[in-house]
Write a structure and sequence with these properties.
Length: 144
Amino acid sequence: MEEILQKDHIRVKETAATWEDAIRSAGNILAEAGSIEPEYIDYMIESLEEYGPYVVIAPMLAIAHAAPGRGVIRNDLSLITLSSPVKFGSENDPVFVVLCFGCIDPTSHIHRLTKIAELLSKESRISALADADTADEIINILNS
């Protein structure tokens, strides 16, 4: 799992009043890691404002991202869970788990996303992530 999602890129029970706050929280992890420029977070928010809540791909789960390359230094992924869910305006609302990724080009991140999609294909696993209290629990859920 470490090659897909690093433990220090996980935050649990984050506080967010809005979907924008949730994206900023998840994006800040990547910015602090030096994987994205801070403006990439704004690009993600602008993308949702323009295209709607396309990032909410399953009940309780959003995968935040923007166009490849712009503001991305290296491919990377973060995950946050929320202490209280937020609404994105999607039929899959409310969202408890936000994955955030930045990719340098249209294809180099596909392996990571495919693996994450496989791991999160069960709604029960997403619920377990939402209920987790530590990053170690998140890793254990994803490894199980």
